[in-house]
Amino acid sequence: MNPRPSPATRLAVIAGIALAACTPSRDHSRIHASGHVEATEVRVAAKIGGRLAELPLQEGSTVRAGEVVARFETVDLDNDLARARSELAAAEARLALLLAGTRREDLDRAAAEVARIEADLAGARRDLERLDGLASRGSATEKARDDARTRVLVLEKALAAAQAEQAKAKAGPRPQEIAQVRAQRDAAAALVATVQQRLADATVVAPRDGVVTQRAAEPGEVLPVGALLVVLTAVDQPWLSVYLDEPSLSRIHIGDRVLVRVDGRRESFEGRVSHVAKVAEFTPKNVQTPEERAKLVFKVKLALDNRDGVFKPGMPADAYFEEPAR
Description:
Layout: H1 7-22, H2 26-29, E1 31-38, E2 41-45, E3 50-54, E4 62-63, E5 68-72, H3 75-100, H4 104-136, H5 142-171, H6 175-201, E6 203-205, E7 210-215, E8 222-223, E9 228-233, E10 239-244, H7 246-249, E11 257-262, E12 269-276, E13 281-282, H8 290-293, E14 296-304, E15 316-321
Antiparallel strand pairs: 1-10, 1-15, 2-9, 3-5, 3-8, 4-7, 5-6, 7-9, 10-14, 11-12, 11-15, 12-14, 13-14
Helix pairs in contact: 3-6, 4-5
């Protein structure tokens, strides 16, 4: 016959059972979610079109920012640049010619022409006066006097035209002419800069560090503007995307520590909550069961430390959120 436990023993057992019932299970307090590792992808494309000369990178190659990714042939661009520079030089020469004004030789020539016509006009007027006197005495014909008068009129018009040319030569080019040639010079300079930029764009460099995860072209291909060359993935800064329901969402915060596990590795890795979506969405079809996909969930991004290269884009992983502090 077993002895009956003492009252003190019975109280201790009851208290222990009650405490165990009130204490939540540590496993049930944790939030567990599954997702896939993602990383920033940069699609490096060509800013110019043409024949691809070099694409030295292979898939899996590590690239540093500023490293050459591809080169295009530049024969046509070199010719365009030579032609643009010639047009610029011609425009600059025309502008310099206008700004220099009329040459001294041209001014002297215009003055000499005016002086010559003035001398001819003075002689013609003297002849007309003499013929007028002779005609009044009947010693000259009316025709001779009319011819002399016509010659005076012609020389007066010629003198006016020569004086106008002399004034134009002294004044030099009009401001509108200078502005026009200056605009042509600026347009030629812009064309040179444009071709030079296209030449620079013929050498494509990596915009950031990353790993080549796709090689989309081959040397010798003629590519259009905007053609994809390679895809760079920033594998050093991956994140894990998971989806949580609203009750779970209220228990996590930006910066919370998360344990991440991947298939094939026994150890756990640390992550941090870096982003919580503000708008709910339906669970993606590749997550959970059809019943679970009907629920509204919130996307949560977990920043991962990938210094050891464990995480790769597309890799499935499990996240275990730390138990909230009490």
